[in-house]
């Protein structure tokens, strides 16, 4: 799942994973858990998150690959990859396991809705300045990443109520699988 901060990747990822009976692997969640543990790597991750910038590609990929290793029946991936370098590495990693991404969902939400969702959540990195930075960083790589995935992309209109978005997501996935 690719989408701007606040577009609903975590919310919809959890619902989709439950629907499919698969794990949802969210890199931001994994990074926050590691930061919470207070290891040296956790402190480095926290510094990246606090500044609203991406962690280095290699570090991000290592964390996800460890989680993917135990997800042999399939998975929903939230927020990874975010750069073409990460996408290439993910394709290589999955190829070694005779696996592949089936579909890539792109969440589309109006920017004012993103900002109001994040402002009312109030996570540590939901300060107005950090939100602006996260949005800017997202748009630095999003279009290139979407182009990389080409025909595997499912566009999702992700404005509106959570249940409605979930319904549209399932519908979009069914259509893409059928075509
Ligand atoms: P991450 O945790 O992934 O944050 P993000 O991409 O900024 O996205 P959010 O989690 O804020 O939004 P979301 O799209 O998941 O929406 P959510 O469902 O939560 O990443 C955090 C940091 O980790 C990054 O800044 C970076 O430092 C690092 N990182 C992560 N991935 C990386 C990578 N690949 N490489 C390098 N570094 C990486 O919803 C947001 C809010 O809106 C919630 O309160 C929710 O309840 C609400 N909401 C959701 N849907 C709706 C709806 N339909 N209507 C109303 N409210 C809604
Ligand atoms: Mg999230």
From TrEMBL:
UniProt entry tagged with the keyword Cytoplasm: yes
Protein name as annotated: Adenylate kinase
Residues noted as binding AMP in the record, renumbered to the chain: 32, 79-82, 86, 123, 134
Subunit structure: Monomer.
EC number: 2.7.4.3
Pathway: Purine metabolism; AMP biosynthesis via salvage pathway; AMP from ADP: step 1/1
Family, as annotated: Belongs to the adenylate kinase family.
GO biological process terms, semicolon-separated: AMP salvage
First-listed, main subcellular location of the protein, grouped into a coarse class: cytoplasm
Domains (record comment): Consists of three domains, a large central CORE domain and two small peripheral domains, NMPbind and LID, which undergo movements during catalysis. The LID domain closes over the site of phosphoryl transfer upon ATP binding. Assembling and dissambling the active center during each catalytic cycle provides an effective means to prevent ATP hydrolysis.
Annotated ATP binding sites: 6-11, 121, 160
Positions in coiled-coil regions: none
Keyword list, A-Z: ATP-binding, Cytoplasm, Kinase, Nucleotide biosynthesis, Nucleotide-binding, Transferase
GO-annotated molecular function: AMP kinase activity; ATP binding
Matches recorded under SUPFAM superfamilies: P-loop containing nucleoside triphosphate hydrolases
Catalytic activity: AMP + ATP = 2 ADP
Keyword Nucleotide-binding: yes
Subcellular localization: Cytoplasm
Summary of the function given for this chain in its UniProt record: Catalyzes the reversible transfer of the terminal phosphate group between ATP and AMP. Plays an important role in cellular energy homeostasis and in adenine nucleotide metabolism.
């Amino acid at each position: 799942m690719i989408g701007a901060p606040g577009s609903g990747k975590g919310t919809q990822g959890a619902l989709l994973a439950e629907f499919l009976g698969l794990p949802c692997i969210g890199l931001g969640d994994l990074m926050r858990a590691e930061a919470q543990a207070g290891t040296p790597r956790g402190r480095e991750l926290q510094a990246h998150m606090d500044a609203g910038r991406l962690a280095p590609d290699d570090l991000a990929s290592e964390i996800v690959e460890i989680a993917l290793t135990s997800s042999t029946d399939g998975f929903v991936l939230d927020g990874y990859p975010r750069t073409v370098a990460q996408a290439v590495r993910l394709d290589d990693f999955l190829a070694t396991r005779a696996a592949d991404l089936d579909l890539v969902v792109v969440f589309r939400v109006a920017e004012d809705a993103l900002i109001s969702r994040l402002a009312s959540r109030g996570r540590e990195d939901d300060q107005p300045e950090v939100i602006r930075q996260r949005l800017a960083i997202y748009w630095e790589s999003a279009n290139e990443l979407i182009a990389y995935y080409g025909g595997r992309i499912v566009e999702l209109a992700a404005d509106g109520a959570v249940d409605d978005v979930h319904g549209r997501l399932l519908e979009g996935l069914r259509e893409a699988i059928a075509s």
